[in-house]
From TrEMBL:
Molecular function via GO: phosphatidylcholine lysophospholipase activity
Protein name in the entry: Lysophospholipase
Transmembrane domains' residue ranges: none
Signal peptide extent: none
UniProt cross-references to Pfam families, sorted A to Z: Lipase_GDSL_2
PROSITE patterns: TAT
Source organism, top-level taxon: Bacteria
Matching PANTHER family: SGNH HYDROLASE-TYPE ESTERASE DOMAIN-CONTAINING PROTEIN (PTHR30383:SF5), THIOESTERASE 1/PROTEASE 1/LYSOPHOSPHOLIPASE L1 (PTHR30383)
InterPro entries named in the record: Ester_Hydrolysis_Enzymes, SGNH_hydro, SGNH_hydro_sf, TAT_signal
Length: 250
């Protein structure tokens, strides 16, 4: 936390200007607020961001909030449908902007349009499995430290533009012995998971520990019941994720 405070203080001195200075100051103050269960307020804008786990087949040419086609068939759709039912009196708008194959650098490339411009009050990010998987396959030269550095830059940018945004961070996960995922994924993937947890603590985000959630679920049914390939969810797995996401709000 001290590092983030120092970053924002230095940015304030470097960039200057009343408008930017105010945004950075607000962002610094917002970081100091302890994470807790998030309250859904009147007219809130909620944004789900991430990779294929969030995307899950959504129609990307449909950019409307609260639209079935725009949400795909994953946890974001299930969570959004329940939110819209439960908080029908609050006029909330919910967007899904997950894109299959994304790593943190791809989020950064489209962040202005697919996050900042939407002005979310609540921002949920599920990212990281491709940052490891693509590196593992030789298609990316990143590392857990690259993941951490890029993630922090993304959140710093977010807090400057949206100092009051409330953050939810989902842990990247792999369900062992299902298709692509085997014991060789660990402990390297574990380091990426540790980074996600560290980032959540540093930015006072609500953290969803999906790895332990799926590990526990395997006591009820095997991994193939919850995921199709160890990473992408079945209908049951999508519901499992959604229910735990919904536990973070009130």
């Amino acid at each position: 936390m001290d590092n983030r405070r120092n970053f924002l203080q230095k940015s304030l001195l470097t960039l200057g200007g009343a408008l930017v200075g105010t945004s950075l100051l607000n962002a610094k103050e917002n970081i100091g607020v302890a994470a807790k269960k998030i309250t859904i307020n009147q007219n809130d804008v909620i944004l789900f961001q991430g990779d294929s786990i969030t995307d899950h087949g959504r129609k990307r040419d449909n950019l409307e909030p609260n639209n079935t086609d725009a949400f795909g068939k994953g946890y974001a759709m299930i969570a959004a449908s329940q939110l819209l039912n439960k908080y029908a009196d609050k006029n909330i708008q919910i967007y899904n902007r997950g894109i299959s194959g994304n790593k943190v650098p791809q989020l950064a490339e489209r962040w202005t349009t697919d996050c900042i411009a939407l002005k979310p009050n609540i921002l949920s990010i599920m990212i990281g499995i491709n940052d490891y998987w693509h590196k593992r396959n030789g298609n990316y030269e990143g590392s857990a430290e690259t993941y951490k550095d890029n993630y922090r830059k993304l959140l710093d940018q977010t807090l400057v533009a949206l100092p009051q945004v409330r953050l939810i961070i989902g842990e990247p996960f792999g369900v062992k012995n299902v298709s692509h995922v085997d014991d060789t994924w660990f402990p390297e993937l574990t380091r990426y998971q540790e980074v996600a947890s560290e980032i959540a603590k540093e930015y006072r985000a609500v953290f969803i520990p999906y790895q332990s959630i799926f590990d526990k679920a395997e006591k009820r049914a095997n991994g193939k019941y919850w995921t199709t390939d160890g990473v992408h969810t079945s209908l049951a797995g999508a519901n499992l994720m959604a229910q735990h996401w919904l536990d973070t709000v009130k």
